[in-house]
Design brief:
alpha+beta, Nucleotidyltransferase, domain 5, 35% strand, globular
Length: 173
């Protein structure tokens, strides 16, 4: 996670097997419950339902915005990143990854899916989070990880490091 003008930029790679952030890797399976589950660990509480996350992997689907699962996984990923810094309330810009072959056809749809709510309240593992999603940028998978570690890059790179000194805009690019 990095910060720009008070906004936390959280890189999330939305894989089928695992959802990954700079500091976490979690299997993508989600099981929904109408009542609080008896067991603990990786429990997301959102809009009156509880979700157990991480016991297995989500089945392949060519459109990740077809159901609520990747939105819920994103909330979990944001909570896990904010928890690293002991933060429960933040403005968040999501930098997310989609498979390279789908970026050109699903970028805008996935971006809108991530931006469907500006203000979100939820609990993860008993801790309440309040976030304001200020924007979303969609990259090919793996790209957000490079951005996060760009300071460590030396020598030749496929990316122009100076381009990242520009402000993050809320456009689909």
């Amino acid at each position: 996670m990095t910060e720009l003008k008070g906004t936390k930029i959280i890189a999330i790679d939305h894989g089928y097997g695992n959802i990954k952030t700079a500091n976490t890797v979690t299997p993508t399976a989600i099981t929904a419950y109408d009542n609080p589950p008896v067991f603990t660990g990786n429990i997301l509480e959102y809009e009156g339902r509880w979700y157990r996350i991480g016991e297995g992997h989500k089945e392949f689907t060519p459109d990740k915005a077809i159901d609520e699962d990747y939105y819920l996984l994103t909330l979990m990923a944001i909570a896990r990143e904010l928890n690293q810094e002991h933060i429960t309330e933040a403005d968040v810009h999501i930098a997310c990854g989609l498979p390279l072959r789908w970026v050109s056809t699903q970028r805008e749809t996935f971006r809108e899916y991530m931006l469907k709510k500006k203000s979100v309240r939820f609990k993860f593992n008993g801790t309440e989070y309040r976030i304001r999603i200020t924007g979303c940028t969609v990259f090919p998978q793996g790209y957000p990880a490079h951005v996060y570690r760009r300071q460590e890059a030396s020598g030749r790179s496929l990316l122009d490091r100076e381009a990242w000194r520009q402000p993050v805009h809320d456009q689909g690019t």
